[in-house]
Amino acid sequence: MSQRKVRIGIDVGGTFTHAVAIDSLSMELIGEVKVPTTHTAQEGVAKGIIDSLNILLEQSNISPDEVAFIAHSTTQATNALLEGDVAEVGIIGMAKGMEKIRAKSETNIPDIELAPGRFLKTHHRFIESTDGFTSELITKTIEELQSEGAKVIVAAESFSVDDPANELLVLDICAQKGIPATATHEISQLYGLKIRTRTAVINASMLVKMMETANMTEISVKKAGIKAPLMIMRSDGGVMDISQMRKRPILTMLSGPAAGVAAALMYAHISDGIFLEVGGTSTDISAIQNGKALIKTAEVGGHRVYLRTLDVRTIGIAGGSMVRVKNGKVEDVGPRSAHIAGLGYTSFSKPEDFTDSSLKTIQPKKGDPDDYIYIEGKNDAKAAITPTCASNLLGMVPPDNCALGNLETITLGFAPLAKALKADAKKAAEMIMDKAAPKAVKVVEQLLKEYKLDTSIIALIGGGGGAAAIVPYTAHLMKMKHTIAQNAAVISAIGVALAMVRDTIEKSVINPSSEDILKIRKEAEEAVHKMGAAPDTIEVFIEIDPQKNILRATATGSTELRARNLKDREMSLEKRIEQAAISLRVPEARVQSLGQTEYLEAFGAEVIENKLWGIYKKKNNSIRVIDREGIIRLQMTNSRVLQTTKDSLDTALRKLIDEHTGYGDAGRELPNIFLVSGAKIIDLSGLLELEKILSFAHAELARALPESPVVCLVNIR
Fold first, then answer.
1. Which ranges of 301-457 would DSSP assign to H, the alpha helix?
2. How far apart are CA 307 and CA 298, in angstroms?
3. Are residues 473 and 336 in the same domain?
4. What predicted TM-score, i.e. pTM, was given to this entire model?
5. Boundary-marking domain end, from 477, 498, 519
6. Using one digit for the tens of pLDDT, what is the confidence trace for 629-666?
7. Is 213 a member of any domain?
8. Beta pairing class for 67-72 and 89-95
């Protein structure tokens, strides 16, 4: 009997560190533990990571040899910036000839304000990297920067992305002297010396702290007998190996929220939706489209940096938010939470403590309003009334959810509140939710508008322990579908456990050729392979930004080939058609199979959409790509499908593109194109020219046999 393979994910939250173990084949949750996050321990957050790992292995009876994958998220990079807990940075600017005047200015990054009153302090020296550029001069310059207080060095030279030799020389000398250092070409391959240097400075400022934690954690993982390499969650929803984290800790910023989104993709199998991860104090909201999380360029201290993160919007409303009451009305809900005020939730309190309760007010922190309410019962028992309590009273919390509370206590607690509001208990609960949920509604509406998301296929997905407190009522107000993810309370840790190895390479290229595209594709593929991704699992997405002259390749892959024994999990064709019909909102008789591979099948139907109050009807051909387990992997409206083979791919793609190319103000507009091959969905929508699409498609299908089935899909813009 073959040994099981276990994937371990550890999510470091603000209050608790959660660890989970998942069976790599069945995707079943084997075990979960929760320990307090160890911010103040001598070992820092590493202690909580190590403690949770050891408890998980022992309680779940997991042998170290069974661990095939282990990763953790971290709040350390984000906290370091917010708290100003960073090292002073010495910058060595370099340039040759005519470039030196511009480069001297662009590498001289002033102190960066990270938060009010908290600064990242910098020191600058400039060297002309022509004649006289020697190891002795570099050494002297490093020592001068150290004497001014620099603890870490940044090497920044014009056009180092083309020739990094001088930056590498600085790194080599720093290594000999035992000084942490960063080179700008390691952080980004884009031109733009000022932004590249600024990004490297922020990255360097975290190196000392992050390396301490990384080293401590890696040693402990090895001591536990785990042979799998330690991975770290990135801000874009993937993971990287610890050697990459030692070079680029900046990539771990916002890795906590990214973990939840990774779970929405890999565990809840959301192809299109708005994901709301609801904690006790705040809610992180992000969007997923065509099976991908939406990404944005990050800013630090109001300055743009070369870092791409998930577009996560955070609001100060959640399951434990406290209620403010003023002049007989609900004034507001949040941002203070019961946790901050040192109070429990009425939902989880004992009813006998509140048989005779009264309404009281509190000022949770100095400077806060003094009209936050709580209830006081017998023997000085105190508890906050929260959205979790209100949602329970309104019957919106599912019976198996971790937010399910004691209705008897909630009813007792709402009695004095209802009296103060001159309403019954249900109305009081609605008044609370009518103040809380619109804060989520506003952000969801922003995402729908900004990314032009199709509301006919978008649903709200809740994760986090407080999901049932916020998501159902938000969906109710927006008249949208919603679901609460399975094991929502540990969804972020699950996301870490299931995350794919990921890397993104960006280059400044004007009008990239097919050769440029294939070259950057190979670089991205090799980068994730080097970090442990199995070659047959690697997928690469190419984007071309003609306005900024940026060519971008994002590669993802899994660390192991997962054996696909579908006999126990395969859904019948009838059930898959039923799934498609439910999603398409049409009768099953109207669903057609439009193309398939061994693992995936495209189902479609003509969907009639009412416009202008039903006066005008618009017909759309909508499709759902569903795998053999019944999971929807891709959904599109206004689309066309063509079944072909690898051998006939060129003809099929040319036909589809010719038929569905449009013309706008910017000229010819190709449709968005996706290919389905084997178990892969290949996204070609980032490419803007036919020949480049064909060239990249052939590279992606290089391992397929000539007669292998391929399904071509176009999404008409």
1. 338-341, 387-393, 407-421, 425-450
2. 6
3. yes
4. 0.87
5. 498
6. 888 999 888 899 999 999 999 999 999 989 888 776 66
7. no
8. unpaired
